[in-house]
Amino acid sequence: MRWSPSEEQDELRRTVRRFLEETSPTTEVRRLMETPEGYEPGVWKRLSQELGLPGVHVPEQYGGQGLGFAELAIVLEEMGRALLCAPYFASVALATNAILNAGTESQKAALLPALASGESIATLALTEPSGRWDLGGIELQAQRVADGFTLFGEKSFVPDGLTADRIVVAARRPKTDGREGIGLFHLRGDTAGLERRPLTTLDPTRKLARLGFRGARAEPLGEVGNAAAALEKTLDQAAALLANEMAGGAQRLLEMTVEYAKTRVQFGRPIGSFQAIKHKCADMLMSLELARSSAYYAAGCADESAKELPAVASLAKAQGSDAYLEIAAEAIQIHGGLGFTWEQDVHLYFKRAKASEVFLGDPTYHRELFAQRTGL
Amino acid sequence: MDAESVRAEVRAWLEANWSPELSLVEWRNKLADSGWGCPTWPVEWYGRGLSPSLAEVANEEFEKIGAVGTPGGGGMGLAAPTILEHGSDDLKRRLLRRIVTGEDTWCQLFSEPGSGSDLAGLTTRAELSADGDEYVVNGQKLWTTSAHHAKYGMLLARTNWDVPKHRGITYFALEMHQPGVVVKPLKQMNGHASFNEVFLNDARVPAANAIGDVGNGWTVALATLAHERRSFDVLQRAARSARGQGRAYDEQRAETTQIMAPYTWYPQRAGRADLIVERAQATGKARDPVVRQEIAKLLALARATEWTAKRARAARMAGRPPGPEGSLGKLYASEIARACSRVHTLITGTDALLSGADGPLEGVIAEILVSVPAVSIAGGTDEIQRNIVSERVLGLPKDPDIDTKKPFRDVPRNKR
User: Fold this and answer.
1) Region class of A118: left (phi > 0), else alpha (psi between -120 and 50), else beta
2) Which DSSP state fits B114?
3) CA distance B384 to A66
């Protein structure tokens, strides 16, 4: 396990940060969050073509850069820091990994190059209106027909589900439950029998959609009905990656807040010289560093220790969710009245923190998973 | 030098020199002569001038064959690096070798009853004798680990009352075994005595034993404190008991027992997350969903803390500037101790009323529950640590100065 980043990893971070500072200032975040698509195609094209970011961890034989989750985690940390509005998490952290984990060799060869190059944008439709993130919550049915499969049911909370041109769907065979009969399928966004509707979201920087499947035709990924393990792995990887995204946002919030505490004068001195404020800031740093260590370690496990990943991914998700939200709340408190105005940027992060707390399963759910996975 | 040539050289040297039949002092004199005992120290002072990561390679070779290393405790961890940075050549010659060999143990005479967190407000006085050769020391120190066996104390005393508090302090190497130095164990609320009080009544210290310039003791003390924040590694090293047979091993085991004795119920040990899972399962509380949540929070905190420490260590090894993760260890330790106390109580239930032989785990749980408040105070209170983190790491402005500009004589202070 690498505990200190390599030169190459530092360089990757610098490159991505420079790019995002240029393309995703909060003025741009504010513009994009008001649009239905929620991203700027020109920026997506540049981050794909100039930086190759959608393929950062995709093996070279499928058109990617062949780096690891540690590098992908750095990219997500920086995107979280910049609150980038883009379908990156949906397409790369969810759909690409689902295909890598579940697809056959020929499916990977057919699907991944377009995703790795950013030409195609995909998402993963897992959760249903029940809001469950575990496999037992999957009710959408895949029915075998003469020459393939058709899907019936509802998906909700699908990130970038409106704009993705390819959708990976978790479904089950009729008359199965739990982890049994789980299958992953994929279909194009314009398939007949697929209805898409945008959801109004608490965090407008991450678009969600509701998808209705009324007999839409879909292709199975890998072996039909046997995708439980691949889907669980995908979710663990995504939890680890989201933890890194959250650490990046929390870091930026702390920087903004410390900067403000140094310059805001009350009672004749900068508020950052009062112990009440200093100690809050020190506590924010403490939570941040723990969340960051957990997020890095989880990403490292995604590369190197498949056995440890499930427990550690849940640990990192729970730790990261709590830290991000706590830091966002304290950031508003230290900014005072200004902190809860629309014009100040803190609320953008607060909303991302709140949404990320629930997205992929809340901390209570992940702590229970962590307990189970550590043998308690 | 690269890692492979260090490895080859230290291996050859160990093959030619290490024998468990040597006495500890004989063996450590060889270490001092060769520089392999403290590879990061300068070549002229018993070291090899190696980087921390190359020194780690040398340590690995010692561990591979189970060769005894330098002693643990405050001598190697605190006194020696301070003397290396600030001591005269005369002091280095007189003091360093016997630290390396373990013949002299050291304690730290910093804290006082009247100045707790405000260390620079100390009032122990050192006055120059009429002939100018020595200082006469009067005052009281406390929280002194190992004072009962130490040969020397790292003493901070005030030598000038007419300048602001940070400028009137001098740092001395004080001989402990002399008339005028009285050591008494200090009993804690958990019933154990991990520390001592030290009374100084006309104790003597040669003027030549000042470490650094007269009046410059605060700067020197900061060097010691910086090493103290990293002292966890040293403790771990001392705790690693040698496995082998032979005179050097026997003597080292006795030495380790002496050094580690105060730490048996040192408050810092109050955080016992390692017992939690086993206890929860044994008591059946592991099935309670609320308890499970609390346990998961605590285990996550403990593991994330461990990873944070590893990041800090890796950054140090890679020669990177110290990051924020390095300054937080003490605060995490008290957070873990508090969480442990809470979760152990949840698991233990009404049995938490009992201690000693009647208590769960033969009293160990009761010890954990009553040792916890000390963790947030010992080694600098949580409040002081948060000030340090916010000012030095985050760069927030300092509190307004009230007592740092006027002569210490005029500063209001606690009545003695």
Assistant:
1) left
2) S
3) 47
Given B289, B311, B393, which is nearest A285 (Cβ)? B393
Q: Quick check: B234 pLDDT over 70?
A: no
Whether residues A3 and B393 touch (CB distance < 8 A) is answered with no
Q: Do B304 and A293 touch (CB under 8 A)?
A: yes
Nearest CA in chain B to A296: B307
Higher pLDDT, A321 or B259: A321
pLDDT per residue over A278-291, tens digit each?
999 999 999 999 99
3-state secondary structure of B196: strand
Low-confidence ranges of chain A (pLDDT < 70): none
CA B263/CA B240 separation, integer angstroms: 14
Q: Is it the case that residue B265 has pLDDT exceeding 80?
A: no
Give chain B's end-to-end CA distance (angstroms, integer): 56
pLDDT at B237: 46
State mean pLDDT over B368-388: 88
- Distance (Å, rounded) from C-alpha B89 to C-alpha B87? 7
Give the separation between CA A325 and CA A331, rounded to whole angstroms. Answer: 10
Q: Is B303 on the interface with A (CB under 8 A)?
A: yes
> What is the total residue count of chain A?
376
Question: The whole model's pTM is what?
Answer: 0.90
pLDDT tens across A26-44, in order?
Answer: 999 999 999 999 999 999 9
Tokens of A75: 């990219």
